[in-house]
Design goal:
The complex is a heterodimer of chains A (136) and B (106).
Chain A (H helix, E strand, L loop, with lengths): L1 E6 L5 H14 L4 H21 L7 E9 L4 E8 L26 H9 L1 E8 L2 E8 L3
Antiparallel strand pairs in A: 1-2, 2-3, 3-5, 4-5
Chain B lengths: L3 E7 L2 E10 L4 H9 L8 E12 L1 H14 L4 E5 L3 H9 L6 E4 L5
Parallel strand pairs in B: 2-3, 3-4, 4-5
Antiparallel strand pairs in B: 1-2
Helix pairs in contact in B: 1-2
The chains are: A alpha+beta (136), B alpha/beta (106).
Chain lengths: 136, 106
């Protein structure tokens, strides 16, 4: 298990994502799976960095957990910000013509499309989102 | 690979060369570069993506922005995308206005 906690700021985005990508590399995940994990992690982190702490600043924690029995990697991302369930955002209609396209919600849509077992819980005053990528 | 973005405009064609990753850290740079072209007579917007390894929603939004603000009538191309990139583009429905092809001769 790997864990990193840093202030929820854009300058820390790379370091936080790297925790997940490094673990995926160690598990010999294929490049495509690594890329999808990077994407899911970035989307969740960017939402937290942008919206979790509207007034004061705060931290964000990324942790990873191996699931040996089915070669999976679970990622958990938590913040102590405004209670918010990103999974409550309506799924964007990706078939709407571009001129009318609302571009919110796309990141969470990509997370849900690419990851398994995506769950949100509010635990001990923290928004806690977790997701799993199975198998190389 | 180092991430790099370069934008040029010539003969009514906006060319945007993307290398490495376009994510939340550098998408604002791309958006700023594209804003400089607002008001130009653009017929074609060409994203050269051969060296692009990764794009997140922040990058996708700048492509949507390019279509919406630079040229409602402009054709938008994505040239030589790698499979991980083209998959995200399709998943997000951007292929509805964006033509993906192997090369761009012009």
């Amino acid at each position: 298990m790997k864990t990193l906690t840093l202030p929820a700021k854009m300058e820390n985005l790379k370091a936080l994502i790297d925790v997940v990508v490094a673990e995926a590399e160690q598990l010999h995940f294929a490049r495509d799976s690594q890329s999808k994990l990077r994407l899911a992690t970035e989307e969740v982190l960017v939402n937290i960095i942008s919206y979790a702490y509207p007034e004061q600043s705060g931290d964000v924690t990324v942790s990873t957990d191996r699931i040996p029995e089915n070669a999976g990697l679970r990622v958990e991302i938590s913040d102590a910000g405004v209670p918010f369930d990103p999974l409550s955002i309506p799924t964007p209609d990706v078939h709407v013509p571009i001129e009318k396209r609302h571009i919110g919600g796309l990141g969470i849509f990509l997370l849900r499309e690419n990851m398994s077992d995506v769950t949100y819980r509010r635990i001990n005053g923290r928004n806690t989102l977790s997701f799993v990528k199975y198998g190389a | 690979m180092e991430s790099k973005i370069s934008v040029s405009f010539q003969n009514n064609i906006a060319r945007i060369e993307l290398q490495g990753r376009v994510d939340a850290t550098n998408a604002p740079v791309l958006a700023e570069e594209l804003k400089k072209l607002v008001g130009q007579p653009i017929n074609q917007i060409v994203f050269l993506a051969k060296e692009l390894e990764y794009i997140s929603s922040a990058g996708l939004r700048t492509i949507i922005f390019a279509k919406q603000k630079l040229g409602e009538n402009a054709q938008v191309f994505l040239i030589a995308p790698q499979p991980t990139v083209s998959e995200v583009i399709k998943m997000s429905g951007l292929d509805s206005f964006l033509t993906m092809q192997d090369s761009f001769d012009n």
